[in-house]
Amino acid sequence: MKNNKNITTLDEILDKKYGKPGAPKREKWEQEFESFRLGVLLEEARHKLGMTQEQLAEKCGTNKSYISRIENNSSDIRLSTLMKIIQQGLGGHLKLSLQL
Q1: Cβ atoms of 71 and 44 closer than 8 Å
Q2: Which of 31, 52, 83, 90 has a 20 to 30 A CA-CA distance from 64?
Q3: pTM value surpassing 0.85
């Protein structure tokens, strides 16, 4: 296998566009990406269970537009609300990890 020096990694692209990890602009991007990823994870779990946004909202005591905003990364979400959606709405458990 040849080593291709023309390949640019995602980290190299992010470093160039947003700065190295720890730079304010990069940290903002990382935070927004995690919010986006959370929305995708919730949407995938909902689809896997065959639920509509309205059904999920009803099960966890919120409304369809709020679920939509979370899935589309248009709303911040409180940890307590996230746990309610995962536990009551999806019947799952939240596992967190911390990287330093």
Answers
A1: no
A2: 31
A3: no
